[in-house]
Amino acid sequence: MAGGASGSSSSTQHTGSSSSSIISNYPLISALAAFVIAQSIKFFTSWYKERRWDLKQLVGSGGMPSSHSSTVTGLAMAIGFQEGFGGSLFATALILACVVMYDATGVRLHAGRQAEVLNQIVYELPAEHPLAESRPLRELLGHTPPQVWNMVPFR
């Protein structure tokens, strides 16, 4: 399976080092590249809007573009190009991508909105309340549908 459509026998697949097989893994490289590009776009967009560098944007979730959607889309497309779009491996990757994107626009988006409301409630508590000094919850957890679907080439 590691050789894919290259036609090499299993004895020649195991002669190279494991690091060279990871480096030449087209779907893995595509998924990682999509993640890095999406996070970089967020990083520079954040700097452009706020005129300050926010290193959290390089690894944080939420915002535009969706690095989760970019990653699973890059993975699915690379598998499709390498293994064929009619195979079960592509079908598995496509379903995974759909689940991740559905989750990003559903559960995670609404959890972020709930965090927003809870933070506002805590902010309005009197200073003597035990929760008044609690650390705010992260609000940017999910994505709006446009943030997710703008990264999907097979829409």
Mean pLDDT: 74
Low-confidence regions: 1-16
Measured as a percent range, the helix fraction is 55-70%
Structural class from helices and strands? mainly alpha
Number of domains: 1
Shape label: elongated
Helix/strand order: HHHHHHH
Distance linking N and C termini: 29 Å
What are the defining features of this structure?
155 residues, mainly alpha, single chain, disordered N terminus
Write the layout of secondary structure elements.
Blueprint: H1 10-13, H2 18-23, H3 26-50, H4 67-83, H5 88-105, H6 107-123, H7 145-149
Helix pairs in contact: 3-4, 4-5, 5-6
Transmembrane segments: 26-45, 57-79, 85-104
InterPro entries: DUF212 (IPR003832)
Keywords: Membrane, Transmembrane, Transmembrane helix
Task: Describe this structure as you would to a colleague.
The chain is an all-alpha fold. The chain has one domain (15-149). The chain contains 7 helices and no strands. The protein has helices spanning 10-13, 18-23, 26-50, 67-83, 88-105, 107-123, 145-149. Helix 3 (26-50) packs antiparallel against helix 4 and helix 5 runs parallel beside helix 6. The longest helix is centred in the first third of the chain and has 25 residues, at 26-50. The chain crosses the membrane at residues 26-45, 57-79, 85-104. InterPro entries: DUF212 (IPR003832).
